[in-house]
Amino acid sequence: QVQLVESGGGLVQPGGSLTLSCAASGRTLGDLYFGWFRQAPGKGREFVAAISYTSGSTWYNTSAKDRFILSRTPIKTAVYLQMGNLKPEDTAVYYCKAGMTFVQAMSETYGATEYWGKGTLVTVSS
User: Fold this and answer.
1) How far is Cα 70 from Cα 56, in angstroms, rounded to an integer?
2) d(CA 10, CA 90)
3) How many CB atoms lie within 10 A of CB 70?
4) CA-CA distance, 96 to 22, in Å (whole number)?
């Protein structure tokens, strides 16, 4: 089992920045892949970015590329999503996910070896 706890959400003005954290605990994390998803009000859950915990390789969706940076710190067993130049359309609940493959980390699936946090709310508004 892996437990994921997101933090860092809040209210930010358009053009501002915010860093989300996903603290992981439980089984060995070195072979896991982590992803961030978001769900805006009235919409489905959308993939944002993913990272290999071992290599640090990353993958971003189109809306996140060039504005968001995903990183991990093995010492603290956490992954961080740095978000810049935020727009009102970035308003959503952001979820952290862990899986055994990059595909799992990028997919809205709920298998036995896939783990989700409870989310943190980001509101971009003036």
Assistant:
1) 9
2) 12
3) 23
4) 6
